[in-house]
Write a structure and sequence with these properties.
Elements lengths: L22 H9 L4 H12 L5 H8 L3 E5 L18 E6 L8 H5 L6 E4 L2 H9 L6 E2 L14 H10 L7 E6 L8 H14 L5 E6 L8 H7 L7 E7 L5 E5 L4 E2 L10 E3 L8 H8 L4 E4 L8 H8 L3 E5 L3 H8 L3 E4 L1 E5 L6 E5 L1 H12 L3 H18 L2 H13 L8 H4 L16 H12 L9 H13 L1
Parallel strand pairs: 1-2, 2-3, 3-4, 5-6, 5-11, 6-7, 11-12, 12-13
Antiparallel strand pairs: 7-8, 7-10, 9-10, 14-15
Length: 457
């Protein structure tokens, strides 16, 4: 968003848009790039704050900077002159092995380097970066909890779900790394083993992106009447759990045509409504190719659900620490283009574990659910992680406010650059002394100028 966008006033904290109000200013910056590739880099970087961050740092004069994003959305800050002069943190999600090369490359230059799941910390340590630590993403435990049995029955009745139905839930963004085909195939296999058993599969996601869910359901023989989703109304802000019929549906709560859409990143339901959706289910299933933490795994645990999760990447942490998180078997495949190791969740494993949960007594499920909530409260709640963050902030050293003026000095076009025979080191010295930038060996601008020098020889 632009710096002063009115939507930013809705947040309970001060928010500043990462793009300038004057779009001409941004275009001049992008168009002045020496190559088309660099233009693309600048445009993308601006959307993550690269263009505005120096200005905001100087104006706000923070004691602490925390960059929370995929590494390619915050790594630009590492080379900023203020980064090492105030307490700075990179808090990034890493979801696959081998770790993203850029994430490993910058690790030595980041004193406070946090990842969201311990599998990434262990791999960083194996690679020699022992200072990297796991700091989970916190969740508000007050908003998510198990409702009593009467309330749960009423919720089911409101959504047309029979109380004796076995309800499987998945809350997710419809991305390709969420293995919807495996879930549908596994669910149908379980159904074929339990003919006559009443059941529903709730997929709370957006049906307008990612996997073509209803086509896949037909492919795997899943009865479309068994698949429910969550529609949110843009008029009355209510929601309904019902069969998917069309991208925009009529809301029976306010009778407005085409006012409902399936939940997505732009429009959804509030925390209280989300808690109700979680409380409709008997089991939560998360078949993932990979994940940095998967917030729905935290949320489902808080609502005392038994959880099935692929035992890879962040899934390993849940499965190895709490019996309520039941591991799903998977096969390894290598993702084209990235060479990341990804998990293909086994549909037979999904069916087996669904069978296991289905055959549990209500008391057994409740006991596991209580373990899930206790585990999440101990490891992922604001109460736990908030204290840790407060402790970190309390130990941050005081800073001299003069550094904000020093670090925002104009570039130095009159800098005297020494004779350096190595082209790469010479160009990097120019960046450092004239532009006040430290660039690594893979920086696109550096590579461009090395190519220019090579062509001129």
């Amino acid at each position: 968003m632009q710096r002063s966008h009115p939507e930013l006033k809705r947040t309970p904290w001060k928010s500043i848009g990462c793009l300038p109000d004057d779009q001409n200013e941004l275009q001049q910056y992008i168009n002045s790039a020496p190559t088309p590739e660099e233009k693309e880099v600048r445009a993308r970087g601006a959307c993550y704050g690269d263009f505005m961050i120096d200005r905001v740092i100087k104006e706000e004069r923070p004691s602490v900077y925390v960059g929370v994003q995929d590494i390619w959305g915050v790594d630009y800050s590492i080379d900023k002159p203020w980064f090492s002069k105030i307490t700075s943190v990179i808090w990034t999600t890493l979801d696959s092995l081998p770790l993203l090369p850029r994430a490993v490359e910058v690790a030595p230059r980041v004193k406070n380097y946090w990842v969201w799941s311990s599998f990434a910390e262990l791999e960083m340590r194996r690679l020699g970066h022992g200072h990297v630590k796991t700091f989970h993403g916190p969740v508000d435990d007050k908003a998510l909890f198990r409702l009593n049995d009467e309330e749960r029955r009423a919720l089911r009745a409101r959504s047309g779900i029979e109380n004796d139905s076995f309800v499987v839930l998945y809350v997710f963004r419809n991305q390709l790394r969420k293995s919807v085909p495996s879930l549908l195939e596994g669910y149908q296999l379980w159904k074929s083993r339990n003919v006559g058993v009443k059941s529903k599969l709730i997929l709370m996601t957006h049906f307008g992106e990612g996997w073509p869910i209803m086509r896949l359901a037909e492919q795997y023989g899943v009865n479309k009447d068994d698949i429910l989703t969550v529609y949110a109304c843009r008029t009355c802000r209510g929601y309904e759990v019902k069969n998917f019929t069309e991208p925009e549906a009529k809301c029976r709560l306010c009778n407005v045509e085409k006012s409902q859409i399936t939940t997505n990143v732009n429009f959804g339901i509030n925390e209280s409504q989300l808690n109700e959706v979680y409380n409709l289910s008997d089991v939560f299933v998360s078949p993932i190719t990979s994940g940095g933490q998967e917030q729905a795994l935290v949320e489902s645990g808080l609502t005392e659900s038994v959880v099935l999760v692929t035992n890879y990447s962040c899934g390993e942490e849940y499965c190895s620490n709490c019996p309520a998180y039941i591991p799903l078997k998977w096969a390894k495949f290598t993702e084209h283009g990235t060479n990341f190791i990804k998990a293909s969740t086994c549909p037979v494993s999904i069916a087996d574990e669904l069978d296991r949960v289905y055959k549990m007594t209500p008391e057994e499920r409740r006991a596991l659910g209580k373990m899930a909530r206790e585990y999440i409260l101990d490891k992922y709640s604001i109460r736990t992680l908030g204290r840790q963050l407060e402790d970190f902030l309390d130990k941050c050293p005081k800073i001299d406010p003069k550094i904000f003026d020093e670090t925002q000095e104009a570039k130095n076009p009159n800098a005297i650059i020494p004779d350096i025979e190595d082209d790469k080191e010479w160009v990097k010295k120019i960046y450092q002394d004239i532009l006040k930038m430290n660039v690594d060996d893979n920086d696109s601008g550096l590579l461009h100028w090395l190519n220019v020098l090579s062509s001129a020889k």
